From TrEMBL:
Transmembrane segments: 12-31, 38-56, 76-100
Entry keyword GTP-binding: no
Subunit structure of this chain's protein: Homopentamer.
Record-stated family: Belongs to the MscL family.
Protein name: Large-conductance mechanosensitive channel
SUPFAM superfamilies (alphabetical): Gated mechanosensitive channel (SSF81330)
Stored Pfam families: MscL
GTP-binding keyword on record: no
InterPro entries per record: Mechanosensitive_channel_CS (IPR019823), MS_channel (IPR001185), MSC/AndL (IPR037673), MscL_channel (IPR036019)
Membrane topology, record value: Multi-pass membrane protein
Annotated localization: Cell inner membrane; Cell membrane
Amino acid sequence: MLKEFQEFISKGNVMDLAVGVIIGAAFGRIVDSLVNDIIMPFIGALGGVDFSNYFIGLSSAVNATNLVDARKQGAVFAYGNFITVALNFIILAFIIFLMVKAVNDLRKRLEAEKPPAPAAPPPADVALLTEIRDLLARK
């Protein structure tokens, strides 16, 4: 069983998947920090847009003015939190789009700078026929 596990874990696709998950998690933290620490403060400074405390109390006992206290008082319909998460997702998706676009543009530029691959030699029969033609042309 141990040998079978070693064979499984040493396969390339398992290691590639593990590396992808680790890099993906790190990339997620980078993008999350970009949104929360760099972009959202500018948006907050421009208009102070924060929908997280928009809610509707679902019982008469709810009379708090912020979501945390309102949830302690009873059931609430917290639509503002959903709006905030949706806006964060849209911003995040746009940033990832810009990053992927930049990487794709860089790849295209690097591929354009590569010299073209040398032409493949013709098949043996074509080469032989070409040689015969050249010999006949000289006679």
